[in-house]
Amino acid sequence: MPVAVVTDSTAYLPAELAGAHHLTVVPLTVVVDGAQGRESDEITPAEVARALGQRRFAVSTSRPAPEQFARAYRRLLDEGADGVVSVHLSARLSGTIEAARLAAADIGDRVVVVDSRSTGMGLGFPALAAGAAAARGEDLAGVRRAALETVDRTSTLFYVDTLEFLRRGGRITAASALLGTALSVKPILHMVDGAIVLRDKVRTAARALTRLVDLAVEAAGESDVDVAVHHLDGARRAAELADALAGRLGGRLRDCYVTEIGAVVAAHVGPGLACLVVHCRD
Question: Quick check: pTM over 0.90?
Fold first, then answer.
């Protein structure tokens, strides 16, 4: 392919999809009680969930170093790519995209960086679109455009049992965390311009999950859609959400992916996450 596509490990793509679309995935790092490792292959989401649940261990995350991206870009260009499109999680959630941009600046205009303004499959769908455009033979501008157009057609909605972990990591304000805990309110959040924003609030977890499905159907509108269902230590809940969406969307639901999130996002949301990502097709 004339253009290579790079993303990061927080896309949480099914492995077969990343391989089929020839995506290069640069991992983020997780630190649990002083032990550092790459997410997924060295530190698992189960380990993070256990550490957070016990509340005796410090959990943190860190972006890849710019040199990690630079090595990936140089390798792909040396292997014959004309250019590289690098698609990453929101700049308002992580310094990952800053590291990618620093690396790209050292290499020149053969590398362009795209902010997905999300994470999980909110990042994964734009990365896949970029990979598909590259496979069609699109040039650098065309592959970048495919990613950006998919960003604009993708909605990320999620429920967490508590906002405490997001507050600790600085991803939401203390005021929002207080709102989420007052009177046992259960929060539904969504991504707006790359930031996590309170979308709705209900009284129970069951109602929150029902409302999450309602909002996903609303985001789908009249389009054919692809959907990703993410969870953390909640495979049964994720399967129920996928079934509910299939019933509501019918034949308009094209592809549905159910995956557990990785250790990086797990460190910031805590156990109990349920996330729906809706990609509206053209």
Answer: yes
For 29, the token pair is 């790092």
Which tokens belong to 72? 């990936």
What single letter denotes the amino acid at residue 207?
R
Distance CA 79, CA 4 (A): 10
pLDDT by residue for the chain (282 residues), tens only, comes to 699 999 999 999 988 999 999 999 999 999 988 888 998 788 888 888 888 877 767 888 999 999 999 999 999 999 999 999 999 999 999 999 999 999 999 999 999 999 999 999 999 999 999 999 999 999 999 999 999 999 999 999 999 877 766 766 556 655 555 555 555 678 889 999 999 888 988 888 899 999 999 999 999 999 999 999 999 988 999 999 999 999 999 999 999 999 999 999 988 888 789 999 999 998
- In the chain, the amino acid numbered 90 is S
Which residues, including other chains, have CB under 8 Å from residue 21's CB and lie 6 or more apart?
5, 127, 128, 131, 132, 135
In contact, 277 and 150? CB cutoff 8 Å: no
Strands 154-159 and 186-192: antiparallel
Among residues 270, 277, 268, the alpha carbon closest in space to that of 245 is found at 277
Q: How many residues does the chain have?
A: 282
Tokens (6 digits) for 134: 């590259």
DSSP bridge partners of 17:
none
Which residue, 89, 272, 238, is CA-closest to 165? 272
Tokens 């969930």 label which residue? 49
Give the count of beta carbons closer than 10 Å to the beta carbon of residue 105: 13
- Going 53 to 56 to 57 to 60, the CA torsion angle's sign is positive
